[in-house]
């Protein structure tokens, strides 16, 4: 089964885990709350305490200010003459990630508020319970206006127990948690409210503000934008304008990284194609014995192989190799080399029955040569498609003008 993430992501994840092992309190940072929740979900425990930020206020994994530090020598290049594969690979692996300078003012540490009762969603309240829940909501609103937020939360909790299907109760309790700087508790309540009513503008608004307090600017902008779309609110619009610059920076950074990854993927495919071509050329050269000009090797000769006992060293002669290339590219060029004894003797080995002194002609007297037509050997005509010998047999009879068409 293939891994769901790429190899480079495995390397980053390993580095992150090694860092957390050395600095476990880093998981108390708001940006890493989801990791902490994951660990605690399976019974793990994250040590309490504040994580001491590195110099310059940089979060080592992209949360607060910058995403990654620049390498010591980002300008270092690998010099190669013709092979660009290595330089491309080095460039893609050593290229520094872009830094994002975010305004982190107002971001707070994630709260550890235990989950509040959510009521029984299957319960169908009676009319009396609905009325009682309405009274409790009024009391909660009064407590909220007096900034008694804990008391307001208690009233909303009782109202939820009586009427758990009312989405507004969860959203308003989330608002009270927001006032107490407990964004995670607010998000849980707003999630429940949106589960009951996906068009709850209040739930989107308060959840968007909670994401902003945790430094989750993209999520915040998305929720606040949806809240204004459902029911425009000046406060929600003000919050949206506050988070938009950071959200845009993060979005642009992500798009840039996706574009770089796409470019790396294209380069990887191009490198793979170049390697395939080089390997193919290497195999062809190996088959041809490494002759000048990329000689095709044994498979390129008529008959598909070398004659028995043939000395391959003969083909290492550049003149011979060039002549064989010329002949194989155009068999008619064979006539150009008949006056060269070295090449002529070599050709006799490959094309028996065609040249004088060849040992193997076809049993029917016909040549096995692939070259059609006549060639000239020493100024004399040689019929390559007929009987072997220096000259075709002469007939003493005068040729008749009559041609038998074979119809009799």
From TrEMBL:
SUPFAM superfamilies: TPR-like. One HIP oligomer binds the ATPase domains of at least two HSC70 molecules dependent on activation of the HSC70 ATPase by HSP40. Stabilizes the ADP state of HSC70 that has a high affinity for substrate protein. Through its own chaperone activity, it may contribute to the interaction of HSC70 with various target proteins. One of its GO terms (molecular function) is Hsp70 protein binding. InterPro entries: Hip_N, STI1_HS-bd, TPR-like_helical_dom_sf, TPR_rpt. Keywords: Repeat, TPR repeat. This is STI1 domain-containing protein. PROSITE patterns: TPR (PS50005). TPR repeats lie at residues 133-166. Residues 49-101, 251-306, 359-408 are annotated as: Disordered. Residues 251-268 have a biased composition (Basic and acidic residues). Residues 287-306 have a biased composition (Gly residues). It holds the Pfam family TPR_11. Belongs to the FAM10 family. It comes from Drosophila rubida. The keyword Amino-acid biosynthesis does not apply.
